Amino acid sequence: MQSVTFNRVEQLDTARHNRDSFTCGVPQFDVFLRQKARKESPDLSLTFVLTYAEEPGDIAGYYSISATKLSADELPEPVKKKIGQYGAIPATLLGRLATAQKFQRNRELRVGELLLIDALFRTYQASLNVASFGLIIDVLKSENNDPVGFCTKYGFIDCSEIANRMYLPMATTKSILVRTGLIEK
Amino acid sequence: MRVPAALKDKYTRAAELRGETFSGWAKHVLDEAAERQIREHEFTVMALSDRIRFMQAVLHPPAPTEASILAAKHYKKTFGL
């Protein structure tokens, strides 16, 4: 691949972004982008895409996030205190994150990393307005892909009961962003 | 609302048990189902032990990993921030 100049990650715009040509090797993720990722999709998730200047309509990767809650039922009292006013544990669900196949083997561009950090950046900023205690990610394993390893590397913690679900507290996200100067302390 | 006669008998009987007319009952049942579905959709189902682990991590957040710091630096450089 020749030189690539990435544009800032932005919300999917079906008029400008070519969803049909996107392939990441996991059919569900390709189909999701084609069918569901509208600005007002029925599952209330928002989809963000990474594009590049050389071919502005081409999607190098995408992720989708939505607000979610975890039940506070049966939680120990000290923990319930922390949740306090919310009544449930507000969190952010990173439902999907996918890199186009032609970018997957490029170790210099690291598209998956760019998408993940953008998701962290965005959820942190959103959490200043709407509370979120952390990011929850449902990873989908496939033959050529081990998302659990990817997520562990960046600090995500394994759920013990639900295989392939992982989470990252918002405070850890904030530390990542502060330590690299993406946000101020 | 049009429903097959056989079902309508059953629904009307159910409505009477709640002291409602068929259409009043149908409205309430639909409303309950909608509420439940929306509520379930908004919630991510997680076992108690995982919710406790999640909250423990919130209260005692782990330090960022080296890879996450490198990734954030890569992000910053790529977008010229």
Tell me the total number of β-strands of chain A. 7
Q: Helicity of chain B, in percent?
A: over 70%
Secondary structure: helix percent of chain A: 25-40%
β-strand amount of chain A: 25-35%
Profile the largest sheet of chain A. Answer: 7 strands, mixed
The largest contact between protein chains, plus residue counts on each side, is: A-B, 52 and 36 residues
Shape of chain A: globular
Largest sheet of chain B: none
What structural class is derived from the secondary structure elements of chain B? mainly alpha
Return Rg of chain A in Å.
17 Å
Order of helical and strand elements of chain B: HHHH
Rg of chain B (CA only):
26 Å
**Beta-strand residue fraction of chain B:** under 5%
Number of helices of chain A: 6
Average residue-wise pLDDT of chain B: 88
Which ranges of chain A are low-confidence, i.e. pLDDT below 50, for 5 or more consecutive residues? none
Please count the beta strands of chain B (DSSP E, at least 2 residues each).
0
Q: Provide the spatial order of strands within the biggest beta sheet of chain A.
A: 1-2-3-4-5-7-6
Q: Structural class from helices and strands of chain A? A: alpha+beta
Q: Which stretches of chain B are low in confidence, meaning pLDDT under 50 for 5 or more residues running?
A: none
Describe the secondary structure blueprint for this structure.
The complex is a heterodimer of chains A (185) and B (81).
Chain A: E1 10-11, H1 27-35, E2 46-52, E3 55-70, H2 77-83, E4 89-99, H3 101-104, H4 111-127, E5 134-138, H5 147-153, E6 157-158, E7 165-169, H6 170-179
Parallel strand pairs in A: 4-5
Antiparallel strand pairs in A: 1-2, 2-3, 3-4, 5-7, 6-7
Helix pairs in contact in A: 4-6
Chain B: H1 5-17, H2 22-42, H3 48-59, H4 66-78
Helix pairs in contact in B: 1-2
